[in-house]
Specification:
63% of the residues lie in helices and 2% in strands. The protein is mainly α. The C terminus is likely disordered.
């Protein structure tokens, strides 16, 4: 618990001190960016409340069309889907007393949504930092969850190893914060996030192949999880490659970047639920090993220890029958 609270304090410190202070100091140098990435040959020159734009990228949606107070209306509104799903997971996590790591992951999910809404609503340099940096922080937390999926030792028993992982994650987050707030590398950031997401998917599939995780209910969630990411990526790509055609030829722009947000939100939701499911089975499997260490080994049946309920088509872990014990929790 203490290590998780420490991570949260560091992330909050990073967001509200390094990002705000550094970005505020560099806003003047970004007041007229010359290397802004656009997706149309004719630049969008609409003026609104947050003009001039100081971000290094301007997405396909036309600026200040719906209201002068929101630069990209649909991209901004769709970002709140991440906040809603993240808040539901966080509240359910508090109620069911899940491990702190999953609460942090849900909070990161919420921060990504808020940052995305801020970015698309303002198209400012600070908004871009509020969007992109929480994505990196969330992936660091997610990687910690994946690599500690089957770990049960307390911190005091493996202090050196745990400290190395925590220090590396914190250092990586701070380093990326400092560098990225000074120079918003569009392509480098996108490639960086792509590798982090792809690596996490490979790791999650590897964890699923372990016998005590290998059940149909998790397999179904994983298939939909990957399918949603592919759908989101297709929307993201088409929105960029066919931007000018959709804005000029057709009067109806499908706002595919907004759909990228929605598909991405459901994708992240399923990922966290899948992580919770695997972690619960890891804990139950460990308890089963301890219980049967001095008696004839009884086969572990993961289907008996995982209960999933669905609300409005979304899966959630049912902890009413399978409560995690304090002895097997790991910080």
């Amino acid at each position: 618990m203490r290590s998780s609270i420490f991570i949260l304090h560091v992330l909050v410190y990073t967001i509200f001190l390094h990002v705000v202070v550094d970005a505020r100091a560099t806003v003047a140098s970004h007041s007229h960016p010359s290397n802004v990435k656009h997706f149309e040959s004719n630049l969008d020159t609409n003026i609104g409340y947050w003009s001039p734009s100081t971000s290094s990228i301007d997405w396909c949606e036309r600026n200040y069309v719906v209201t002068q107070y929101i630069a990209e209306f649909w991209n901004c509104i769709s970002s709140f889907s991440m906040c809603i799903l993240g808040a539901i997971l966080f509240i359910r996590g508090l109620y069911n007393n899940v491990e702190t790591r999953f609460l942090l992951s849900s909070l990161g999910f919420i921060l990504v949504g808020l940052g995305s809404a801020y970015f698309h609503g303002t198209l400012t340099h600070l908004g871009q930092m509020a969007d992109e940096l929480p994505m990196v922080y969330s992936m660091i937390i997610w990687w910690f969850i994946l690599y500690r999926m089957n770990e049960f030792k307390q911190i005091k028993n493996k202090l050196f190893v745990i400290d190395i992982l925590l220090v590396f994650g914190i250092f990586y987050g701070l380093l990326w914060t400092y560098v990225h707030s000074l120079q918003t590398f569009v392509l480098i950031f996108q490639a960086h996030m792509g590798l982090m997401v792809l690596g996490a998917i490979i790791k999650l599939i590897y964890l699923y192949r372990q016998p005590y995780h290998h059940i149909y209910r998790i397999k179904y969630i994983l298939i939909v999880y990957v399918g949603l990411l592919i759908s989101a990526f297709v929307c993201w790509t088409i929105d960029q490659q066919l931007c000018e055609r959709m804005n000029n030829i057709s009067r109806f722009n499908p706002q595919l970047h907004a759909w990228w947000h929605v598909f991405g939100a459901f994708h992240c939701h399923l990922g966290i639920v899948c992580g919770e499911a695997m972690r619960l089975l890891s804990i139950k499997h460990r308890q089963h090993q301890i219980k049967n260490s001095r008696s004839p080994q009884q086969p572990f049946k993961p289907d008996d220890h995982l209960h999933i309920v669905y609300y409005l088509g979304l899966p959630y872990i049912d902890y009413s029958k399978e409560k995690q014990t304090n002895e097997t929790k790991v910080q």
